[in-house]
Amino acid sequence: MPLHPTLQAMCDAANEAAAAAADAPPPTDAERLDAVRAGAEAFGSLGAGEPEPMHSVGDHLADGPHGPIPVRVYRPTAAEGAALVVYFHGGGFVSGSVDAWDGTCRRLAQATDAVVVSVDYRLAPEHRFPIPLDDCHAAVVWAVEHADAFGADGGRLAVAGDSAGGNLAAAVALRSRVEGPPLRAQALIYPVVDPACATPSMVENATGYLLTTDSMQAMWGWYLGPGGDANDAFAAVGKAADYTDLPPAVVITAEYDPLRDEGEHYASLLDGFGVEVECTRYDGMLHGFFGLRELVPDSDRAVAQVAAFLRARL
User: Which residues does the annotation mark as catalytic?
Assistant: First the structure.
């Protein structure tokens, strides 16, 4: 299926800007990182529309091994005993924030009737692996411990995330299998899986669709750092030896996304170990479409699919 016309127009504009800057001196590593961060903040709230009203939204600090972790708690209604979903934003491990993903988390809270806890984990390269994962797991533990205060039931728990946040959600699921707390579901939205960046979709969609293969390679480098272990299964989640007893997973991918094939491969790995998996590719979409509700109808369809999957298991 062709790329959605609205998304094609976005890509055309971005590609024209890149071509116009082609003769400029290459950016320094610091300049490139600054550009990635500015782009993520802008894209994270692009096309989000008016924010859904919540019963309450509050900013808190969760306890973590590397210091306090900012979290934002979305309570869609005053009902007690709601399910609990902990969400990790995207941004390639180096960018993104709870502010930029505010619209996505509000939509998910409304669609699931769950309390959503959005985690502002520390970012690479200042805080390399495993620090962001440590923050995410600690935030899940904190959310369960404080669930009653937010009208949630910590025993009805799921994790969710998009892009790098999908990686962190998958890694938290692997870690929680050993350390707890027990999860009932995981939602992985076009997750980052493989540092090798060598799948067919990494070649087919290498350039021209906003997220590039080159930028993914750079973000893995920032996350793992010099000498980092690209085979550590808590970073490269597709390298785990065993996926048994992991919670049911919904995996969302996009046709014109460099990450498409690794997300689908991860779903097949889970399925091969008997984990319940629902994997859907959204044709005509690109990386980041989940948050673009004002631009593409498939955004609402994907949010509804994820919410239905979580509701059924929570």
Answer: 163, 257, 287
